[in-house]
Amino acid sequence: MRPDHSFKGRQFTAEVILWAVRWYLMFPISYRDLELMLQDRGVAIAHTTLFRWVQTYAPEIEKRIRPHLRASNGSWRVDETYVRVKGRWMYLYRAVDSRGQTIDFLLSAKRDAEAEKRFFRKALGQPHTVNPRTITVDKNPAYPCAIEKLKEDGELWRRSRLRQVKFLNNIVEQDHRRVKRLVRPGLGFDSFWTARRTLAGYEVMAMVRKGQLRRIGGRDMRAQANFVAELFQIAA
C-alpha cells in the first residue's frame, strides 16, 4: 500500500485535522465556534485555517467514502432546495430513496432540464445507486423533458416511471432540513466552488450518520471516526 501524503506539510497532525473537519461537517457550528472548541482542547488555531481544511478535505472524504456506501433502492424521491451563494439563491438538487437514504446531490446555478439531466447522470454513475423503477418529483415541467431525454439516450431504464405527485416527496423535503440546519450558522457561501466543496462534506457525513456505511451504525461515532481515519491510513 502506498503511503498517504494528504497531510504532508501541515502544521497540525492528521488526527486533529480530521477531527475538526468531521465535527464541522456533522454539526451546525460556525468556524469561529469550532476555533473556540479546539482552544478548549488546547489546540490554538485560526478559523481561517479551519475553513481551508474543510475546503481541502471535505471533497476528499466524500470521494473516499462513496465506494463503501450501502446500495440504495430503486424508488427515487427527487427535489431541489435553495442555497445562498454570494448573495444569490442557487439550487441544490437532492434525491433520497423510499427509506430516506441519500442517493446523490448537485449544486446548480440554474433550475432547468439541463441541470436535471446533469443531476440524474451524476446520480446514476455512483457505485451505490441502481437504475430507478420510479422517480417521484414535484410539478416542475422540466423533469419530464429531462427524463425523456435520458431514456432516449439509453442512460435511464426505459421502464422507469415518473410520478409528479408532490405529497409523495415528503421524505426528501423533510430531509432538506438536515442541510439547511448545517448551512445556517455560516450565513451562506462566498463562491460557487466553496459551496460545492462544503456541501459535498455535509452530504456525505449525513450519509454516514444515516447508517449508509456498510457494517457501521449511524450512531456509532467511534467506529465512524476510526473508519474515516483508516481511509487516510492513520489511527483515530
UniProtKB/TrEMBL annotation:
Q: Which residues form the DDE domain?
A: 75-212
Q: Which InterPro entries match?
A: DDE_dom, IS_Transposase, RNaseH-like_sf, Transpos_IS6
Write out the GO MF terms. DNA binding
Name of the protein this chain belongs to: IS6 family transposase
Keyword annotations of the record = DNA recombination, DNA-binding, Transposition
One Gene Ontology BP term is: transposition
